[in-house]
Structure formats: structure tokens, C-alpha cells
Write a structure and sequence with these properties.
Length: 124
């Protein structure tokens, strides 16, 4: 899907018409997006339409679901992108270490796979 279309769909689906709230997490995300070259508007903590579009664009370009939603997890991903931009070697080392981290969903899938293999072995 085209990046601009995905962003537009996120904004329309959210029914966003203006500032929803003001908080420190939003302010931090806005400032970091500005540093990365996105245009979320002023880093004032207000989740404006411009901010949501910038977030959705970042998400799309980083192969995340383009929700436009500002979460602590998104802030972490943006921080990682900043780290990679500032120090590509350190970011590569962090990415290498992250390969050993599994999500609960991945752990459940691996457990089901092992259980299935065990059942097949017992049946044979």
C-alpha cells in the first residue's frame, strides 16, 4: 500500500480532527521525529493531525502497523532509530543482541511447535 494512502487511512479511521491531549510522551516523540526528519508540527505535546500523520509515516517506513498511535513502545522504536542514526555500529550490536529476545507470541508458537513434534514422535 502506498505510504501516503496508509497514513491518510489511519487519520480518517481515527476520526481525528485536532488536538486530543497534551503529554510528555507525545512531546518526546514529536521532538525525536523532528530529529529524524519527520514533520509532526511543534514539539508541544499535543497529538495533532500533523503529529499522527508523522507517526503513521514513521511506522510505515519502519515496517510497523501504521496506527498513528503514540505509545511507549513506539517511543522506544523511535529512540532505537535515533541511536542507529547517531551510531550505526552500536545500533548493529543492539540489533544483534535483540535477536535473542522473543515476544510472548513467539514463545507460545515455539512451544506449540515443540509439543506437536513430541506428539508426532510418540505416535511414530
Amino acid at each position: 500500500m502506498n505510504c501516503k494512502l496508509a497514513v491518510l487511512l489511519v487519520v480518517l479511521a481515527a476520526g481525528h480532527t485536532g488536538p486530543a491531549y497534551c503529554d510528555d510522551l507525545t512531546r518526546m516523540v514529536q521532538a525525536d521525529l523532528i530529529t529524524l526528519g519527520y514533520d509532526p508540527g511543534t514539539a508541544n505535546g499535543e497529538a495533532t493531525t500533523k503529529t499522527i500523520i508523522a507517526v503513521a509515516k514513521f511506522q510505515t517506513e519502519h515496517k510497523l502497523e501504521p496506527t498513528g498511535e503514540i505509545t511507549p513502545q513506539l517511543a522506544g522504536v523511535i529512540q532505537a532509530a535515533l541511536t542507529q542514526q547517531k551510531n550505526p555500529v552500536a545500533a548493529t550490536q543492539t540489533a544483534a543482541a535483540a535477536q535473542y529476545y522473543t515476544t510472548p507470541e513467539q514463545e507460545q508458537a515455539a512451544l506449540r511447535t515443540r509439543q506437536q513434534a513430541c506428539l508426532q514422535e510418540k505416535a511414530a
